[in-house]
Amino acid sequence: MTQSLPPALPAPEPQESGFNLRRIVIIAAAALIGLIVVLFLVALLLSGLSDVEGAGEVVRLVRDLVIIFLAVEGILIVLALAVLVLQLARLINLIQTEIKPILENTQETVRTAQGTVEFMSSNLTEPIVRASGFMAGMSVMMGQVFGLRRALQRNGRGDDGEAG
After folding, report:
1. CB under 8 Å to 55, separation ≥6 — which residues?
2. What per-residue confidence (pLDDT) applies to 100?
3. For the ranges 16-20, 27-31, 124-128, which has the lowest average pLDDT?
């Protein structure tokens, strides 16, 4: 009998989600390029519309604001690294105090199960397999003996029939 397989269903098309990684990267790159263009245009307008002394004051103010921003960002990075180190220390502590004993208990359980399997194999399974093999051998031997007897009886009758 041959079984026919049902026709394969077409694979569902992946649904376009609103935000996937590629779209986010493209949007971020476009925003960065747009910000650079806007800053360039603002600098161009400041240099063209105002005097050099006024533009210098604005540039110094922007420079000071950027330096302050970078200093605050550096402080935040150092704080984030400190939090990361503390979380890493907590993780190591958790592994040593919680997970290591669980793994040791699991290994002990596996060793116990292995011992149980070996015990059952040597005391229950092996004798049953041996007895089963012995019985199968006896069955085959008896079949051969009775088959040989029947063959001899048929041969004897066949010879008697030809002689008589």
Report:
1. 46, 47
2. 85
3. 16-20
Alpha carbon 14 to chain centroid, angstroms: 22
Residue 144: closest CA among 155, 132, 152? 152
Token pair 């011992």 in the structure block, residue: 115
Q: Which amino acid is at 96?
A: Q
Give CA–CA dist 124/131, Å, rounded.
11
Q: Give the Cα separation of 89 and 97 in Å (integer).
A: 12
Q: Which of 66, 36, 68 is nearest to 58 (CA)?
A: 66
Token pair listed for 62: 């922007």
- Exposure b/e, 73-102, CB count within 10 A at least 16 = b: eeeeeeeeeeeeeeeeeeeeeeeeeeeeee
Per the CB < 8 A criterion, the answer to whether 157 and 164 are in contact is no
55, 47 contact by CB (below 8 A): yes
pTM higher than 0.70, yes or no? Answer: no
